[in-house]
TrEMBL record:
GO biological process: CMP-keto-3-deoxy-D-manno-octulosonic acid biosynthetic process
Entry-linked PANTHER family: 3-DEOXY-MANNO-OCTULOSONATE CYTIDYLYLTRANSFERASE, 3-DEOXY-MANNO-OCTULOSONATE CYTIDYLYLTRANSFERASE, MITOCHONDRIAL
Full protein name: 3-deoxy-manno-octulosonate cytidylyltransferase
Residues annotated as transmembrane: 14-32
GO cellular component: membrane; mitochondrion
GO MF: 3-deoxy-manno-octulosonate cytidylyltransferase activity
Pfam families: CTP_transf_3 (PF02348)
HAMAP family cross-referenced by the UniProt entry: KdsB (MF_00057)
Reactions it catalyzes: 3-deoxy-alpha-D-manno-oct-2-ulosonate + CTP = CMP-3-deoxy-beta-D-manno-octulosonate + diphosphate
UniProt entry keywords in alphabetical sequence: Membrane, Nucleotidyltransferase, Transferase, Transmembrane, Transmembrane helix
């Protein structure tokens, strides 16, 4: 315990908080697993969007061939047939005003949300209708395919023992050591084992094996709505904090995550330079 305390730099208070939190959610977690066998029918897509970003401030409003990036993502999400509703969740009035301008429903959320999952959870609580599945749609991939959104929804519907589903695609060898490209390994039944910013699996040569089918995690993910309410109560975990990946908190707490493999050329936008790259690609493919 003392080793964990020093590693996190939070002292005994953090340990006490963690133990209390675990005790507090134990009953809720047990009840959730007992009730998770019902069919999850209604799904809502939520696009978390924040203005402040260390690498690209105002990213959701960046113009991509004449349209804000958030609009392009919303338009793609609206094409998914499994979604009953699509909303944007933001803490910024500029983003909200922009989204209302092109017809999107907007839910205002707190600036204190630590990540997209927490923002989705807050937005879910403010929605008038009840939903069984919440899809967290990353706003920085404006070319997301609606079929992938449908895929993660159906994966969660078909796996009642999972609380979370996500998508992966083939990792390009040149992205093997890029920490912004999150890697994933799955078991033979299609459930996630681990996510990392480093190359996984890692072989003895210390180099990318061109023959190995490495997997790249795509940002889209869906949650059972009951689990999404439990998620913020789960204490931070060592692996989550070390890798800065929220998916690891789910796995470290013993929950199952279903993973689907898709053929998708990921074009996420992390920096202003990525905008020019994606615009060139869209012109090449005649996407307006």
């Amino acid at each position: 315990m003392e080793i964990c305390s020093r590693g996190l730099g939070s002292g005994r208070a953090w340990i006490a908080h963690g133990l209390l939190a675990v005790a507090a959610i134990a009953a809720a977690g047990y009840a959730f697993r007992r009730k998770s066998s019902h069919f999850r029918s209604r799904a809502v897509g939520i696009i978390p969007a924040r203005y402040k970003s260390s690498r690209f401030e105002g990213k959701p409003l960046a113009q991509i061939l004449g349209k804000p990036m958030i609009q392009r993502t919303w338009e793609r999400a609206k094409l998914a047939v499994t979604l009953d509703h699509v909303v944007v969740a933001t803490d910024d009035e500029k983003i909200a005003e922009c989204c209302r301008g092109f017809g999107a429903d907007v839910i205002m959320t707190s600036e204190s949300c630590q990540n997209g999952t927490e923002r989705c959870n807050e937005a879910l609580q403010k929605l008038k209708k009840k939903y069984d599945i919440v899809v967290n749609i990353q706003g920085d991939e404006p070319l997301i395919e609606p079929e992938i959104i449908d895929g993660v929804v159906k994966a969660l519907q078909r796996a009642p023992d999972a609380v979370f589903s996500t998508a992966v695609t083939s990792l390009k060898p040149e992205d093997g050591f890029d920490p912004n490209r999150v890697k994933c390994v799955v078991d033979k039944h299609g459930y996630a084992i681990y996510f990392s910013r480093g190359l996984i699996p890692y072989n003895k040569s210390g180099e990318v094996n061109p023959k190995f089918p490495y997997l790249l995690h795509l940002g889209i993910q869906s949650y059972d709505s009951k689990f999404l309410r439990i998620y913020p109560q789960l204490p931070p975990t060592l692996l989550q904090l070390e890798e800065d990946l929220e998916q690891l908190k789910v796995l470290e707490n013993g929950y199952k995550m279903k993973v689907i493999k898709v053929d998708h050329d990921a074009h996420g936008i992390d920096t202003p330079a990525d905008v020019e790259k994606i615009e060139a690609l869209m012109r090449e493919r005649n996407i307006s």
